[in-house]
Each structure stands twice: as C-alpha cells, then as structure tokens.
Specification:
About 25% of the residues are buried. A 12-stranded mixed β-sheet has the order 7-8-9-10-11-1-2-3-4-5-6-12. Helix content is about 15%, strand content about 45%. The chain is mainly beta and about 220 residues long. The two termini are about 20 Å apart. A hairpin with a 3-residue loop joins strand 10 and strand 11. It has 3 helices and 12 strands; from the N terminus they run H-H-E-E-E-E-E-E-H-E-E-E-E-E-E. It is globular and about 50 Å long.
Length: about 220
C-alpha cells in the first residue's frame, strides 16, 4: 500500500523525466488549447477534483483506484487508498494509515508533483504535439491532443483530453514502451473554495502512534 503514492506521483508522470530539446513539431491549435488550460489553472486560488487512477497493459486498464486532490498554488494534498501525501511548499509528507508511518522529505527536483500543470506544460520539453480532433469522454465533449516524445524516454505516447469550454483537463492516458498503460480520469472539478489554513500543513500531534522518518 505504501508504494501507491510513489507510483501515482512518479510512475505515471514520467513526462517530467524527459530532458530532450530536439526539434519539435507543435500543432498551433493544440498549443493554444494547452496554454489556455495552463493559464486557467494558474489563475485559480485553489482547485479540487476527484479522480480515478487506472493501470494495465496494452490498451486495457485492469486496476483502478479512486482518489481526491486539492491544490493551492505550489501546495497540494493527495489522497488515494487510505494513503495521503501533503506538499506544504517545502516538504513532502507521505502518510500511510495501513503502516502507521510518515516519511518526510524535501523535493530533490527529480520528483513529479501531482498537478494538472505537469501534463499540460510538458509538451515544451521534447514532445511532438498533435491536435487529433473532438472526442466524447465520460459524457464530456473534449479536444483530443496527442504527445509523442522526440527521443526515447520510455514513453510511446500521451493522450490528453481537454474540456476546452472550461479549459480543464478531463483525462490523461500514458502508454509506455514496456507495454504498460496509466490513466487518470478527472471528475467533480471545483475551484476557489474556502479551504482551511491547515489544509496543506502536517500536524505531527495527529500521528502520535506513527513512525515518523525524515529522509
């Protein structure tokens, strides 16, 4: 169970590990859509959404886990399968209820934070970007954008499905060269809510019986 957050925050989002700046082909329409989504997220005081994280092989998702996500600028809180991750802007707290353990670490720069901005801005880092067309996803009319790496980075392609009317990401699919697939489907999106000041803080007093490890 304790590895779920690592898989979610690092595994699916290998996008951020690409360091290639080879010549790119970026479709103008796709770029316009992604830039609008990025600007929309950055303009909000905070965002919240539910999501389903799916994994499998080929094009078949065989396992899914529900989760919820809150963010405010550079801070966030992620909950999935009884496990929680908090980033307070300085440190990352991984909290496992099953193991009664908390690990605390400072970002090294290699981690991929769980944020919609990871997906919609990575086209700037060595990906060909193509606008494919309109697709209906989970009852929503979306614009389908495909990202293909300009050089080998372990990923075959990434598909983004955007609700252009609201400038919001609806779904992401990542297909890797090892034949694995990872999917995030977003629902119940909300923004600019009245959140508690303690939402993105770790209170050690609440975890007296937990093992707390500073990495």
């Amino acid at each position: 169970m304790k590895n779920i957050l690592k898989k979610v925050t690092l595994g699916i989002f290998a996008l951020g590990t690409a360091a290639s700046f080879s010549a790119q082909k970026v479709d103008a329409k796709a770029k316009s859509i992604l830039d609008a989504v990025s600007s929309n997220y950055k303009a909000k005081n905070n965002v919240y959404f539910k999501f389903v994280y799916g994994t499998g092989n080929g094009k078949n998702v065989t396992k899914t886990e529900p989760g919820i996500f809150y963010s405010a600028k550079n801070k966030y809180k992620l909950k999935i399968m009884g496990t929680e991750q908090i980033f307070d802007g300085s440190k990352i707290y991984n909290i496992s209820a099953e193991d009664q353990e908390v690990t605390v670490a400072k970002p090294t720069g290699n981690e991929q934070m769980f944020s919609p901005l990871n997906y919609i801005e990575e086209y700037k880092k060595g990906y060909n970007v193509k606008y494919v067309g309109k697709v209906r996803v989970n009852g929503v009319n979306t614009d389908y954008i495909k990202l293909s790496p300009t050089k080998n980075n372990g990923i075959k392609e990434v598909n983004l499905f955007v609700n252009t009317a609201k400038n919001q990401l609806v779904k992401l699919e990542q297909f890797s060269t090892d034949n694995s697939v990872s999917v995030i489907a977003i629902s119940d999106y909300r923004e600019n809510q009245n959140l508690s000041n303690s939402m993105f803080s770790f209170d050690k007093a609440q975890y007296k019986n937990y093992i707390v490890t500073e990495l």
